[in-house]
Design a protein that fits this description.
alpha/beta, eleven-stranded mixed β-sheet, 3 helices
């Protein structure tokens, strides 16, 4: 999109009075703008499944055997997962997203959650009997756990991805919370973690 605009500016530089900054500065600006937008709004993996979930205007989702893809842009969306899950991908941009794992079984007692959150708030509700391992890249945002998980749990949820200028929160729910348990957490990047 930005390169199309740059091309139009280059072609009409005399009409616009921009002869002094064409063509290289305009192409450079288009390149940097495209890179910046791709960092803020990464493209998602695609697979078949069901149509949209959630309440937000920009909420959409797909589900296939053991896999869930959920995307929210400029909205408020909530998803209650059920059944057996092996991989969940969640993208949230400029919105609020809540995903509940409370009625979910993990495929082979293991599952991967990939979170991409830009300028938004993402909350994962996870049973306290699960072990959660976070490997999240944080840039000027926050990734935190509220409550205690079971560090020796049979079910392990691996949470990866990136948080840019946003918030990722994992909330442990259930009566089986382990008081004073260790948490397996790894953070990469800049910002509060």
């Amino acid at each position: 999109m930005l390169f199309s605009l740059a091309f139009l500016i280059i072609v009409n530089d005399e009409l616009l009075g921009l002869e002094a900054i064409t063509p290289w500065p305009v192409l450079g600006a288009a390149l940097l703008g495209s890179l910046g937008l791709n960092l803020l709004f990464p493209k998602s993996a695609k697979w078949g499944g069901h149509p949209a979930w959630g309440r937000g205007e920009g909420a959409e989702g797909r589900e296939s055997v053991g896999r869930v893809f959920y995307k929210n842009t400029f909205g408020d969306a909530t998803k209650y997962l059920s059944g057996v899950v092996g991989r969940v991908e969640a993208e949230n941009a400029f919105g609020s997203m809540q995903i509940y794992f409370t009625e979910t079984l993990l495929e082979g007692h293991r599952a991967q959650v990939e979170v991409q959150s830009s300028f938004g708030n993402t909350v994962l509700y996870v049973p306290a009997v699960w072990k959660v391992v976070m490997d999240v890249r944080v840039a000027f945002g926050n990734a935190e756990e509220n409550g205690n998980c079971n560090p020796y749990g049979e079910d392990v949820l691996y949470v990866g991805g990136s948080v840019n200028f946003g918030n990722l929160e994992i909330v442990y729910v259930g009566e089986e919370e382990c008081a004073g348990s260790e948490k397996a957490v790894i953070f990469h990047g800049v910002g509060k973690a």
